[in-house]
Amino acid sequence: MRLFLLKLLVLIPCIVSMQGCETVKKLYSDDSSSSKNECADWKDYDSKDKDDDDCVDWDANKFRSQAKKAVDAGNWDKAIKIYEALEARFPFGPESSQTQLDIAYAYYKNSDPESAIAAADRFIKMNPRSPNVDYAYYLKGLVNYNRDIGFAQRFIPTDASQRDPGNARSAYDIFSELVRKYPQSRYVPDANKRMIALKNNLAMHEVHVARYYMKRRAYVAAANRAAYVVEKYQRTTAVPYALQVMQEAYTKLDMPDLAQNAEKVYKLNFPNGPPVPEYENATVSHKIWDFIGLEK
């Protein structure tokens, strides 16, 4: 309000005497650096071409070419800043929807899962009929699929089935939605493979919970949890281990008939033992990690 009054006071003599107009121009002109260069956010980056950091006269193609340079260099932080500037400068361009997907992917590669999912959701909401909407779903699934893979998981062979299954369930649900809504999508084959892995991990997580109940002598809870695996996760690698837990739990509960039934089912379906070892490619470090029980 004070600034408006100041400008008005200076404007009056300018109108009367046509003097002081240079002052008016200075007051009304915006000499801020953000106006001259809205791309100042990435000025801290090293650039061989000084023009790369000055986007005053850039068109959409120039933004995209510079973003591609950042992507090719693996500089995802800079790529995100350029895409954000592009989206702000050309929000309704013919390729604005592609920009939304590009920035979602850049967030994903920059290890910012929340922003990646938010960007993908925004794309789905604003472009429900886009031919690329299947990719937005696929990207959301990938983000959740890899969300728990941190430093330790990359370099230490831990068991994913022993960790919180929340993100795994989210990834499975998103991939399922992709397969259901877009069965002809090019991403469906990969999504199906990931769903198989996720389902096996979710089933094994339930087995780990059942085993925990066994250790706590909560035999009824253990038997129920194992039975849930056999019923809900058929044809997964966890079923034989669930049957073993059921047999042991019913034996502890002095329920020989149920224990024998579990044993019969196990021997009938898995006469040579579990078809897939619990740690199929276990290394020495993996066995040590499991022995210490750091995830249990």
Structure commentary:
With 296 residues, the protein is mostly helical. 66% of the residues lie in helices and 0% in strands. The protein has 15 helices and no strands. It is elongated, with a radius of gyration of 30 Å. The N terminus and C terminus are likely disordered.
Helix content: 55-70%
Kindly state the number of beta strands. 0
Shape: elongated
Give the terminus-to-terminus CA distance. 62 Å
How would you concisely characterize the structure shown here?
This protein has helices at residues 2-17, 21-28, 33-36, 60-72, 76-89, 96-109, 113-126, 133-145, 151-155, 166-181, 188-215, 219-232, 239-252, 256-269, 284-292.
How do the helices and strands line up, and which of them pair or pack?
Layout: H1 2-17, H2 21-28, H3 33-36, H4 60-72, H5 76-89, H6 96-109, H7 113-126, H8 133-145, H9 151-155, H10 166-181, H11 188-215, H12 219-232, H13 239-252, H14 256-269, H15 284-292
Helix pairs in contact: 1-2, 4-5, 5-6, 6-7, 6-8, 7-8, 8-10, 10-11, 11-12, 11-13, 12-13, 13-14
Name some characteristics of this structure.
single chain, 296 residues, disordered N terminus, mainly alpha, disordered C terminus
